[in-house]
Amino acid sequence: MRKALIALIVLGLGLSLVIALPRPQSPTEKFHAEDDGLALTPPMGWYPWNIFGEEPQNEKLIKEIVDALVASGLKDAGYAYVGPDEGICFFRGPDGKLSTNLERYPSGLRGLGDYIHRKGLRYALYTDAGTHTCSKAMPGTKGHEFEDMQAFADWRADYIKIDWCNTAGQDIVATYTLLAEAQRAAGRPLVHSLCSWGVGYPWQWAGAIGHMWRTTSDICGPGQADWGMAVRIAFANDKLAPFVGPGHWNDPDMLISGMPGLSETQNRSFFSLWCQMAAPLMAGNDLRDMTPSTVAILTNLEAIAVNQDPLGVQGHVVWNNGNVSLWAGKPLFDGSRAVLLFVHGKYKTARRILWEEVGFSSADELYVRNLWTHETSGPHKGGISVTVEPDDVAFFRISKKNDFPIPPILVADTTLLSLRSTGPHPEKLSGTVTVENKGSASLPPWRIDPESLPSWLTIEVTGSGKSQTFVNTVKTAGLKKGAYHAQVRADNVEPVSGRPMSAFYYDVDLEVPGNMPLRD
Ligand code: GLA
User: Which protein residues touch ligand 1 with a CB less than 6 Å away?
Assistant: First the structure.
């Protein structure tokens, strides 16, 4: 109850803050993502909070969700970041360091991460910038920033959500800046998701510190979607459109599509809005129990293409008459544009969308791709007429060409190679990591800076077309007994889309059971 009240106050504050928004300054600062190359399109994945809240989270549940994420086709649609939210997964020991709650996570948080990585996915964890997490069930990072960020790196997190509860007296910019420094010092690049619900105007400064920031309060209480709240959040987040770009995103909270409380129409409209706003797509429903319709919505690659567009523009409201709103201003990499007509009021609406309202000229003859029926019509002169029911959307991609390519959407078979040398003699071991592009085009070869690799590892990139393989060769000659680790970074800065893609990272573990001579 108290939490709900706080959430309401924060939402109220958030909404009133965004109304008086300053426009973005000319950005002289350097964005955090310029170094690590992460999240150049909005992160996609799954987080437990919306459907489960804290209590049922444990290793078994998260692993079941991970399996369902793969089996349902969400992985193949680009969803990758997955892991526990606030859910009693670690505690601080007497030495000040974080340890796994082994009762809930018997494989340890590192073991859970390995499970996720072996599925080709990315590991997401949660903490708080204050003394404790929101429910006070777990310790926050205050005063332990460097140790905690080291723990998340040791657990091999690829994403960390950092909440803003229990932070009385803390300066928000200084706190999150220190956490980003601690994260850099820990040496493992990860997506930094700030979660202050709009408090401290993070859109003005958080791009230099992390990759995404919550703009508004929680979208629902655990277990039950709230359509009215979701619509209010969408309109509040809309005001912040000028602040986003590749590697720095407004986060209007996790998805509610597929949760109890929404109709099929609302599920589809919600997903369309989050795609049009270039919002992170962190699914929030129970992936083990989805209707075919929910799966079809969450895996609609044509809608996801709008969200994952490499230009990274947030579509916004161009007009709103109180019953219906037109969301445009979203150019896409191939010269097409995404357009959404949303009936948020009570009345079925017939409207004509005019080409000049959506970024084209009235004389243009344009093709219209309906992103839900997957049908193309046109060429149309001047505009297109549509009829939309309450809570529903018309979601289009509009182009001068009768061709609607999908931008790069990458899916890996694994993000962890574990190699072990067996005998007493030096060996050559190898393992592969394959990355497929579910988008339309073949990609140029991925590049790895050989200087970034340890002396025991060499990598060759093979394959072409939509699928490339990193062939990893390990030579154990001269290595001492022990465990070795490398985090490999691959870049693709000249992709078909004309924009760099997010860097692709994976881990290589090597176990050497005894000292190896230099030669056999
Ligand atoms: C805050 C966040 C939520 C969730 C909870 C956990 O409310 O906004 O997304 O992480 O904390 O307590």
Answer: 49, 85-86, 133-135, 163, 195, 197, 218
